[in-house]
Amino acid sequence: MSKLVKYLNQLFINRGISEVNHYQSFFIEMITDDRKEGWPINVRIQLYSDWRINDAIWWDNFLKKTPRLTSSLAMPDDCMRAFSLFYLKDFDVISIDILDNSDLVVKFSNSDFLYVPGRSEAIECSWIIDVPVEPEFCDFNIICDECGEIYISDYAKKIIRL
Q1: The sheet that has 150-152: what strands, in order across it?
Q2: Helices first, then strands: H and E counts in the chain
Q3: C-alpha to C-alpha distance for 17 and 69, rounded to whole angstroms
Q4: What is the pLDDT of residues 80-108, one digit of tens each?
Protein backbone atom coordinates (compact mmCIF):
# COMPACT_ATOMS: atom_id res chain seq x y z
CA MET A 1 0.00 0.00 0.00
CA SER A 2 2.86 2.40 0.74
CA LYS A 3 4.03 2.36 -2.88
CA LEU A 4 0.49 3.22 -4.01
CA VAL A 5 0.21 6.06 -1.49
CA LYS A 6 3.61 7.41 -2.52
CA TYR A 7 2.52 7.44 -6.17
CA LEU A 8 -0.79 9.13 -5.32
CA ASN A 9 1.05 11.84 -3.40
CA GLN A 10 3.27 12.49 -6.40
CA LEU A 11 0.17 12.58 -8.58
CA PHE A 12 -2.00 14.84 -6.38
CA ILE A 13 0.31 17.20 -4.46
CA ASN A 14 0.06 20.83 -5.65
CA ARG A 15 -3.13 20.18 -7.58
CA GLY A 16 -6.28 22.07 -6.77
CA ILE A 17 -9.88 21.19 -7.47
CA SER A 18 -10.70 22.43 -10.95
CA GLU A 19 -14.20 21.01 -11.34
CA VAL A 20 -16.97 19.63 -9.14
CA ASN A 21 -19.79 17.57 -10.62
CA HIS A 22 -22.74 15.77 -9.15
CA TYR A 23 -24.76 13.07 -10.85
CA GLN A 24 -25.61 10.26 -8.47
CA SER A 25 -22.44 11.01 -6.54
CA PHE A 26 -19.81 13.73 -6.45
CA PHE A 27 -16.87 13.86 -8.82
CA ILE A 28 -13.94 16.20 -8.24
CA GLU A 29 -11.37 16.80 -10.94
CA MET A 30 -7.93 18.20 -10.38
CA ILE A 31 -5.74 19.65 -13.11
CA THR A 32 -2.12 20.68 -13.16
CA ASP A 33 -0.30 23.04 -15.51
CA ASP A 34 2.94 21.23 -14.76
CA ARG A 35 2.96 18.62 -17.53
CA LYS A 36 5.45 15.89 -16.67
CA GLU A 37 6.31 13.09 -19.05
CA GLY A 38 4.27 9.99 -18.21
CA TRP A 39 1.94 11.80 -15.77
CA PRO A 40 -1.68 12.77 -16.48
CA ILE A 41 -2.74 16.40 -16.48
CA ASN A 42 -6.23 15.66 -15.15
CA VAL A 43 -7.15 13.26 -12.32
CA ARG A 44 -10.51 12.59 -10.72
CA ILE A 45 -11.83 11.29 -7.43
CA GLN A 46 -15.35 9.88 -7.48
CA LEU A 47 -17.03 10.00 -4.08
CA TYR A 48 -19.71 7.39 -3.43
CA SER A 49 -19.64 6.78 0.31
CA ASP A 50 -20.83 9.14 3.03
CA TRP A 51 -17.83 11.49 2.82
CA ARG A 52 -17.24 14.70 4.73
CA ILE A 53 -14.86 17.58 5.20
CA ASN A 54 -12.70 17.35 8.35
CA ASP A 55 -13.63 15.18 11.34
CA ALA A 56 -17.15 14.05 12.20
CA ILE A 57 -17.65 16.64 14.98
CA TRP A 58 -16.58 19.54 12.73
CA TRP A 59 -18.81 18.29 9.89
CA ASP A 60 -21.86 17.81 12.15
CA ASN A 61 -21.42 21.31 13.60
CA PHE A 62 -21.02 22.75 10.10
CA LEU A 63 -24.28 21.11 9.00
CA LYS A 64 -26.15 22.25 12.15
CA LYS A 65 -25.13 25.90 12.04
CA THR A 66 -25.40 26.47 8.30
CA PRO A 67 -28.80 27.37 6.85
CA ARG A 68 -30.27 24.61 4.72
CA LEU A 69 -30.25 25.15 1.02
CA THR A 70 -32.72 23.44 -1.26
CA SER A 71 -31.87 21.89 -4.55
CA SER A 72 -32.67 19.07 -6.91
CA LEU A 73 -29.71 17.14 -5.48
CA ALA A 74 -30.68 13.76 -4.07
CA MET A 75 -29.76 14.20 -0.40
CA PRO A 76 -30.44 17.26 1.80
CA ASP A 77 -26.76 17.49 2.80
CA ASP A 78 -25.59 17.38 -0.82
CA CYS A 79 -25.91 21.17 -1.16
CA MET A 80 -23.55 21.58 1.78
CA ARG A 81 -21.19 18.98 0.33
CA ALA A 82 -21.12 20.87 -2.97
CA PHE A 83 -20.54 24.15 -1.13
CA SER A 84 -17.63 22.67 0.84
CA LEU A 85 -15.98 21.27 -2.29
CA PHE A 86 -16.30 24.62 -4.09
CA TYR A 87 -14.74 26.29 -1.06
CA LEU A 88 -11.75 23.94 -1.34
CA LYS A 89 -11.16 25.00 -4.96
CA ASP A 90 -8.90 27.80 -3.68
CA PHE A 91 -6.46 25.38 -2.03
CA ASP A 92 -3.96 22.78 -3.24
CA VAL A 93 -3.59 19.21 -2.11
CA ILE A 94 -0.65 18.78 0.28
CA SER A 95 -1.03 15.05 0.91
CA ILE A 96 -3.20 12.04 0.21
CA ASP A 97 -3.38 8.85 2.23
CA ILE A 98 -5.18 5.53 2.21
CA LEU A 99 -5.58 4.28 5.75
CA ASP A 100 -5.44 0.61 6.80
CA ASN A 101 -9.24 0.41 6.64
CA SER A 102 -9.19 1.86 3.06
CA ASP A 103 -10.42 5.29 4.14
CA LEU A 104 -9.16 7.98 1.76
CA VAL A 105 -7.87 11.24 3.28
CA VAL A 106 -6.96 14.21 1.07
CA LYS A 107 -5.38 17.13 2.95
CA PHE A 108 -5.47 20.67 1.57
CA SER A 109 -3.16 23.65 2.08
CA ASN A 110 -5.71 25.43 4.31
CA SER A 111 -5.57 22.51 6.84
CA ASP A 112 -8.99 21.14 5.83
CA PHE A 113 -9.23 17.57 4.64
CA LEU A 114 -11.58 15.43 2.62
CA TYR A 115 -12.41 12.18 4.41
CA VAL A 116 -13.93 9.32 2.39
CA PRO A 117 -14.73 6.11 4.27
CA GLY A 118 -13.48 2.92 2.66
CA ARG A 119 -16.47 0.93 3.84
CA SER A 120 -19.90 2.18 2.98
CA GLU A 121 -23.46 1.33 2.19
CA ALA A 122 -22.94 2.62 -1.33
CA ILE A 123 -24.16 0.32 -4.06
CA GLU A 124 -20.89 -0.74 -5.63
CA CYS A 125 -17.98 1.24 -4.31
CA SER A 126 -16.82 3.85 -1.79
CA TRP A 127 -14.43 5.83 -3.97
CA ILE A 128 -12.61 5.71 -7.30
CA ILE A 129 -9.48 7.48 -8.51
CA ASP A 130 -9.15 7.65 -12.28
CA VAL A 131 -8.02 9.79 -15.21
CA PRO A 132 -11.14 10.96 -17.06
CA VAL A 133 -10.09 12.58 -20.34
CA GLU A 134 -6.64 11.44 -21.39
CA PRO A 135 -6.72 8.49 -23.83
CA GLU A 136 -3.28 7.20 -22.81
CA PHE A 137 -4.53 6.84 -19.21
CA CYS A 138 -8.10 5.64 -19.91
CA ASP A 139 -7.49 2.30 -18.18
CA PHE A 140 -6.04 3.87 -15.00
CA ASN A 141 -8.39 2.99 -12.14
CA ILE A 142 -8.05 2.55 -8.41
CA ILE A 143 -11.35 1.40 -6.93
CA CYS A 144 -12.34 0.95 -3.30
CA ASP A 145 -15.45 -1.21 -3.13
CA GLU A 146 -18.14 -0.89 -0.46
CA CYS A 147 -16.39 -3.53 1.69
CA GLY A 148 -13.12 -1.58 1.72
CA GLU A 149 -11.28 -3.83 -0.76
CA ILE A 150 -9.01 -1.89 -3.11
CA TYR A 151 -8.70 -2.94 -6.74
CA ILE A 152 -6.01 -1.52 -8.97
CA SER A 153 -6.32 -1.90 -12.73
CA ASP A 154 -3.51 -3.74 -14.49
CA TYR A 155 -2.62 -0.53 -16.30
CA ALA A 156 -2.36 1.41 -13.03
CA LYS A 157 -0.22 -1.39 -11.53
CA LYS A 158 2.11 -1.08 -14.52
CA ILE A 159 2.43 2.71 -14.14
CA ILE A 160 2.87 2.57 -10.37
CA ARG A 161 5.16 -0.47 -10.72
CA LEU A 162 3.31 -2.60 -8.19
Answers
A1: 16-22, 26-31, 42-47, 125-130, 141-145, 150-152
A2: 4, 10
A3: 22
A4: 888 899 999 999 999 999 999 999 999 99
Sequence-distant (6+) residues with CB within 8 A of 112 are: 53, 54, 88, 91
**Nearest-angstrom CA–CA distance, 162 and 3:** 7
DSSP lists the bridge partners of residue 17 as 30
| Whether this model's pTM surpasses 0.85 | yes
- The yes-or-no verdict on residue 57 having pLDDT over 70 is yes
Residues contacting 65, CB < 8 A, separation 6+: none
66: CB partners within 8 A, 6+ apart: 80, 83
Per-residue model confidence as pLDDT tens digits over 100-137: 999 999 999 999 999 999 998 867 899 999 998 888 88
Three-state DSSP state, 11: helix
For the chain, the structural domain boundaries read 2-160
